[in-house]
Design brief:
Helix content is 18%, strand content 26%. The chain contains two helices and eight strands. About 16% of the residues have low confidence.
Amino acid sequence: MTSPWTRCAKTAATVSAGAAALLLATAPDAAAAGLGPVTVEGSKPLAGCTYKVTSGDLVGGGSSAYNEMPVTFFDNGTLIGTAKIGTTVLVGNPAKVSWTPTTPGPHTLTATLGFDTPQTLALDPVTVQVGPSAATGSFGCPIPSISG
């Protein structure tokens, strides 16, 4: 004969296992969720002007697992540059590169994170519409932010 406590323990174990299975089945896939977006300063970039492109929400500092991780940025598949995620600051410090689009039109900015090419992870891309260059050269470009 099974005691009430044993039946209760078995029922609790069954319910817990079922709940865990349900959570795993409905939880979003970490790879599908992405690592956050690539971001670009300015809302209306112009050809010939320089903008800061960052690794979005991926920040370093403190005990971040992303400290010293290189992020490689691309514009329509062409290399823009590589920068490391923050190292010594205790608050967010995403990887940042300067980007100067040379042609007007849509530009898809992408980035990969990681030390080894076969094991890199992709950040969420962003597509921006670049306007034609300013007739006055760099004098027609927006003034860069002093904060970063």
